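User: Some background: our group keeps a shared notebook of sequences we're curious about, and every so often someone picks one and asks for a predicted structure to add to the entry. Today it's my turn. The entry only has the sequence so far, pasted here. Could you supply the structure so I can complete it?
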Amino acid sequence: MNKTLLPIRIVFILLCAAAGWLVCYAISDWDRYRGVALAVGLCIGMLVVLVDVMLKGFSLRGLSAITFGIGVGLLIAYLVGASPLLEQGDPSIIYLVRLGLFIICPYLSAVIALRGKDEFNLVIPYVRFVPHEVEVPLVVVDTSVLIDGRIARVCESGFLSAALVIPRFVLNELRAVADSTDPHKQARGRRGLEVLNELRKIKNLVIQIPESDVTRREDVDAKLVFLAQSMRAKLLTTDYNLAKMAEFNGVVWLNLNSLAKSLRPELMIGERLDVDLVKPGKEDGQAVGFIEDGSMVVVSGARHHIGHQVQAEIISVLPTAGGKMIFARHVGEAE
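Assistant: Of course. Here's the predicted structure to add to the notebook entry:
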């Protein structure tokens, strides 16, 4: 039981008992029933509190749906009861029919409203209908993703159609890294803050910042996993240990490194590409360069073109743990 509601419920029960006691003063013939009135008031208060406890978790959406359903049901019952169908007949039968209508119609309308997929928001004196057919997926973001920086470009491209959830304790951790005395950590933290500002500027990108905190640094990973579980969200991280913890707890995690690898183009032998040569290779005449996706290309016969962009023809592709190593030959030399 909620500790805040406990004293309120106790006071309410005592007030109900006192009301039952005071009723005896209003009706002089009930003086001898003061004990019974006190017990009845106490029972009524306890019954109301019991109903309150049973309604735990009942949302505002449910309350507005029931209100709308009962209103529609009463309207239907009134229209049918006032119709010419019930103008003639046995008065007792007509009374029972109308009584049944006023009981059955509100019940059925309230049940149908609760089963519906529409979101009812009752704002006195207006009733506002908000369609809620499509649920926006949520993605919880950790500190490593903000420091990595690629999340901003992914969101700008529009491929991540989800609302980003950045907890307050993640922002505090990022701010602590930016305020570090270590120049390397300070630079990483400031880059994360810059990425956060870039995310705020992206149009149509929803960012939620839950106001939750952690007491110890080692609790951050556990709180991220718990937050993703409770919000039924996915976890976006580049931290391998955090990803494995999330996977163990049944939380779907997204990896930017896997996304980057999947976006690398499939290269075929004989295909030509432009390579920026940056340094000499191990063998004579070789030069090493890189293409747009970061893959390393070893170009034979192009050492004297270091510092320039050349066109190379692929002769072989070697998969490695860090990606692909491409061997090519300089097109000018081959021709």
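Suggested note for the entry: The longest helix spans residues 91-115. The two ends are 83 Å apart (CA to CA).
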